[in-house]
Amino acid sequence: MSPGAATGGGSALGVDVGGSGIKAAPVDLAAGAFAAERVRVETPQPSTPAAVAAVVADLLARFPEHADVPVGVTFPAVVQHGITRTAANVDRSWIGTDAETLFSEAAGRPVVVVNDADAAGYAETAFGAAKGVRGVVLVTTLGTGIGSALVVDGTLVPNTELGHLEIGGHDAEKKAADSARERDDLSWAHWAKRLQRYYSHVEDLLWPDLIVVGGGVSKKHEKFLPLLDLRTPIVPAQLRNDAGIIGAACLAAAAARSAR
Ligand code: BGC
What residues contact 81, with CB distance under 8 A and at least 6 apart? Predict the structure, then answer.
């Protein structure tokens, strides 16, 4: 699937499942933008598969005029062919869950489930900071964890999980995610040192043509991106917190088209 294929027009629903909130909106696929106002509810605690599926079904039902469009849901874990394989920052009962079947049954309609960073990366490639960029694009999201999406000439390589590189004996996201900055009360300069170490390592392994930095903290990019010294151009994401919903909707629409 290439982003070009995702922009065929029409609409799809996107749902972004996160640790604190679950957000949904219909997406105009040609514009790469919300077609109606986004709805957000708190993530149920504990965030078990059954509890989250019930919330997702409820959110989808709030858009009756989009009852027949494709649905894409993001999830903050490895999602291999609809099955959630890891649970770094979510309830461990998700490991091995057939999330695609679970959500589809709860919603009474087909649902495509993708990794959250993959969805965001796909959207940034189709409509945002990496639009039209050829070659190897790495999109990272800095939040509770570090998410990664690798897009090569417009094609997504799913589940790269580069937030879990081991650097200096540590899981990278435990030191360099935005949650680490908050937890350790780091100055921007101190956090940038950790980001420098992380992104230097990543660029030495992948040699990307462009790195895009997303996640909520990317709206404060001027506080830390200018402090980084990398050979790869590194830019803030443009779609920010909308990227997951937009990317999930696009990926679901592309999957629906290729299934026809
Ligand atoms: C998870 C990834 C996810 C990222 C951002 C990581 O801990 O392993 O699957 O994309 O957090 O939510």
Answer: 100
pTM: 0.96
Amino acid of residue 200: S
- Residue 116 Cβ contacting ligand 1 at under 6 Å: yes
Domains and CATH numbers, the chain: 3-116 (3.30.420.40), 129-238 (3.30.420.40)
Those residues whose C-beta lies under 8 Å from the C-beta of residue 213, and which sit 6 or more positions away, are: 140, 142, 221, 225, 234, 235, 236, 237
How many angstroms separate the alpha carbon of residue 161 from the centre of ligand 1?
Answer: 7
Does 86 contact ligand 1 (Cβ within 6 A)? Answer: yes
Question: Across the chain, which distance is largest between two alpha carbons, in Å?
Answer: 52
d(CA 12, CA 9): 9
Q: List the end-to-end C-alpha distance of the chain, in Å, as a whole number.
A: 14
- For the stretch 176-231, pLDDT in tens is 999 999 999 999 999 999 999 999 999 999 999 999 999 999 999 999 999 999 99
For ligand 1, atom 12, name the residue with the nearest CA: 76
